[in-house]
Amino acid sequence: EAGVAQSPRYKIIEKRQSVAFWCNPISGHATLYWYQQILGQGPKLLIQFQNNGVVDDSQLPKDRFSAERLKGVDSTLKIQPAKLEDSAVYLCASSFTSGVDYNEQFFGPGTRLTVL
Amino acid sequence: AQSVTQLDSQVPVFEEAPVELRCNYSSSVSVYLFWYVQYPNQGLQLLLKYLSGSTLVESINGFEAEFNKSQTSFHLRKPSVHISDTAEYFCAVRVSGGYNKLIFGAGTRLAVHP
Fold this sequence. Notes:
The complex is a heterodimer of chains A (116) and B (114). Helix content of chain A is 0%, strand content 47%. Chain A is mainly β and 116 residues long. Chain A has a single domain, classed as Immunoglobulins (Immunoglobulin-like, Sandwich). In chain A, a hairpin with a 6-residue loop joins strand 7 and strand 8. The mean pLDDT of chain A is 92. By secondary structure, chain B is mainly β. Chain B has one domain: Sandwich (Immunoglobulin-like). Chain B is 0% helix and 54% strand. Chain B contains no helices and 12 strands. In chain B, strands 2, 5, 6, 10, 11 and 12 form a 6-stranded mixed sheet that branches. In chain B, strands 3-9-8-7 form a 4-stranded antiparallel sheet, with no helix packed on it. In chain B, strand 7 and strand 8 (64-68) form a beta hairpin. The mean pLDDT of chain B is 91. The chains are: A mainly beta (116), B mainly beta (114).
């Protein structure tokens, strides 16, 4: 079974530039999550989709961050413009929406963003 | 609001020694508890979880964790560690109901030395 795919794996940009990350979840997983993991901290949920609808974006800095999941499958997270404090690993995860395996989230390898 | 505290940021240990990684959570409602492991340059992998039933849960590679409701703890233990256990370990809590949102602790880096 293929895992959660993310690209790119690494990205270096200058502040005020824009950047986009892509995620393809595990086939059949209706729920998709984007997390931000700053060095030395645990992952923090930015946004959660169920199919193509947003169910939680309470910690997404909406003035600069946006995310979409137009067809309910893959997703894109964008930052525009980037700030120095956005340097982090951006993790994508997916899970079933119900059933006995609902509680397990499967994580991709992440995209490491460095903002100079 | 829920929160998770991992009391040790780093735990050095010699190979074949026992280890305990501590995790405490705060929540006024029922929770589900998880331990995830992150190897270098990889994503997080679920190690074990407590949803209900027996308070002692085990993983396939020898780790175990015990849910202690009175102490609001979910400490992770292994009686004998291997070099390959070197990784970052994250404790997480999810409030029952809701949308499967996980709150993570800051992580504990387990370094196993020969």
